[in-house]
Amino acid sequence: MADINVKFIHPTDGRELTVTLDDSITGQEAVAELISASFIEPDSQGYSLAIKGGNQIRPNATFSESGVKEPDQNTIRVVPATDAGN
Question: Where is this region: Disordered (predicted)?
Answer without folding.
Answer: 61-86
